Amino acid sequence: AQTVTQSQPEMSVQEAETVTLSCTYDTSESDYYLFWYKQPPSRQMILVIRQEAYKQQNATENRFSVNFQKAAKSFSLKISDSQLGDAAMYFCAYGRGGGSNYKLTFGKGTLLTVNP
Amino acid sequence: NAGVTQTPKFQVLKTGQSMTLQCAQDMNHEYMSWYRQDPGMGLRLIHYSVGAGITDQGEVPNGYNVSRSTTEDFPLRLLSAAPSQTSVYFCASSRQTYNSPLHFGNGTRLTVT
Question: If contacts are CB pairs under 8 Å, which of residues 71-110 in chain A contact chain B?
Fold first, then answer.
């Protein structure tokens, strides 16, 4: 079974600084997707960024980017120019692909605090 | 622009009571799922459906039933609530395409006393 590990239960960053959240996963599949979801205090689950395993280029979405290391099974999220609104719980998730992304495996989450 | 709608937002039950958490999506998504979120556990898959009339179990299905009579609706039933089912429940849906991400509802906070 696939597992997703987020080794940092909590992280903090100063406003305008950069922070990196770690995620590792275990799978024997070669075709899969990786996701980062953000959950602010409102409880809503918001997709931040996604990465297709067959793409070597790291995904970016504005201030958010990933460092995808397929051989190492690592998928870290970098937030640049952190803003107060980035404070949230962040979940890394694995989807097996092939249309199976409704069955995601989530990590336990990293709570990010942004200090003014 | 409703997306995935879950009701109720909050619910308190007594042990042994039954209830149904409602989930509806208006995006014509084929796939729908139910997750529960517990502190320190992330989200775990309860049940899922790949289309009307088709359901299957996820990681933590015990104590829950689902049905999918229409594309739009995917209710989650607790037949006899237990304190261990105190959690936040999320319904999610996605299209039946290779790279379609999950769209989540806003969650239901359930407390079983």
Answer: 91, 93, 97-99, 101-109
Calculate how close chain A gets to B99, using CA atoms only, in Å. 7
Please give the angle made by the CA atoms of B91, B54 and B98, to the nearest 5 degrees.
70
The predicted-structure confidence for B17-42, as pLDDT tens digits, reads as follows 999 999 999 999 999 999 999 988 89
Q: Are B75 and B67 in contact (CB under 8 A)?
A: yes
Residue in the block written with tokens 């209710």: B75
Q: What is the pLDDT of residues A56-104, one digit of tens each?
A: 899 999 999 999 999 999 999 999 999 999 999 999 999 886 656 668 8
Contacts of A54 in chain B (CB under 8 A): none
CA angle centred on B47, ends B110 and A7, rounded to 5°: 75
